[in-house]
């Protein structure tokens, strides 16, 4: 087989066979296919698309390019959850202990944040002592004993994706649905779950700005998941404004604790119920979504979910006493209000720009090498659809530098106050096939 022939085939809109796709991924991972040929193939895929069968074969080849985690020694149906990224997206911190507390085993590998999006690992590391590295054996033992562990992705998980993603990044081939779908699903399949709940975000704070693209991506991932013998469903959710009220690592840990105490922001709570009830049903711990929702509500009101979070922190070496005194995590030197310049209704909170404001404070990374300041971030007091009076604080800036002029300016430019506006729908679609 020669790579040049396969590039030509794809360029001319023909289908690649499973053998051909396996050859490409195996040889590219080994380094025997050079980046320039792979770049040409990626661009051909970008323009000519792929069938579900091709995407499935690509996904499986990438999933098997490195370690495939075997979770079969964990009892029960293992359910993973994956979000395509957002701003202030605190759901995993809440969902992992919440669904574990009703008996669903959660063996989750999460990622770090980059640019305007935050990452669950960084948020967990805002908890003093919390370890995101466990050996495979420890990971499986903890999930068997306690139903939940959230750790970093092992180094050898889907190495083909790591290499391809870096190449796509510099060849303008990131925003291709077959390439995004195979990238995400290859990592989920290598991570070993039996069932996967996907949160495909859409809006300014998401990869897919356009809802039509988000729906297509969701349908594609659900179909290829099924072809790969996994149970998969997707929720298409709104990320035009940040989720919840807190954006920033310690602030989001506090928000997660408050949510697990039953005092969370409405949209975050609803998101956790929507995704959590799907996870509970996929894990066959409930027959219907309504029943699952009742179980989750009971776990919140009884304190069972909060106790599970405490247990999870303790199991992973963290200081679990912060659950009883979360304010201890809020150590930023300055808390600065952002007063509204006029009265009206908030009509827009541009999620990605607000994410950048939090990043500029130190809550996120501009480049992979940047250090994070866990204490800083933003706490929104108004969301889209809320009334505000002139002079009233729109949000609080938590900062370790006194001068936040540029952050304030960025925020003012991306918060619109108008005459009338309403809360956007949180969930646009639920996709099961
Ligand atoms: N997230 C991924 O993991 N891969 C993509 O291609 C896009 C988003
Ligand atoms: Ca949040």
Automatic annotation (TrEMBL):
Cytoplasm recorded as keyword: no
Recorded GO CC terms: cytosol
Requisite cofactors: K(+)
UniProt key word Metal-binding: yes
Recorded catalytic activity of this chain's protein: thymidine + phosphate = 2-deoxy-alpha-D-ribose 1-phosphate + thymine; 2'-deoxyuridine + phosphate = 2-deoxy-alpha-D-ribose 1-phosphate + uracil; uridine + phosphate = alpha-D-ribose 1-phosphate + uracil
Keywords, in A-Z order: Glycosyltransferase, Metal-binding, Transferase
Record EC number: 2.4.2.2
GO terms assigned for molecular function: 1,4-alpha-oligoglucan phosphorylase activity; deoxyuridine phosphorylase activity; metal ion binding; thymidine phosphorylase activity; uridine phosphorylase activity
Gene Ontology BP term (one): pyrimidine nucleoside metabolic process
Domain Pyrimidine nucleoside phosphorylase C-terminal residues, every copy: 345-418
Lineage top rank: taxon: Bacteria
Top EC group: transferase
InterPro entries referenced in this protein's UniProt entry, alphabetically: Glycosyl_Trfase_fam3 (IPR000312), Glycosyl_Trfase_fam3_N_dom (IPR017459), Glycosyl_Trfase_fam3_N_dom_sf (IPR036320), Nuc_phospho_transferase (IPR035902), PYNP-like_C_sf (IPR036566), PYNP_C (IPR013102), Pyrmidine_PPas_bac/euk (IPR018090), Pyrmidine_PPase_CS (IPR017872)
Functional description taken from the UniProt entry: Catalyzes phosphorolysis of the pyrimidine nucleosides uridine, thymidine and 2'-deoxyuridine with the formation of the corresponding pyrimidine base and ribose-1-phosphate.
Known partners and oligomeric status: Homodimer.
PANTHER family, A to Z: THYMIDINE PHOSPHORYLASE
Family: Belongs to the thymidine/pyrimidine-nucleoside phosphorylase family.
Protein name as it appears in the record: Pyrimidine-nucleoside phosphorylase
This protein's encoding gene: deoA
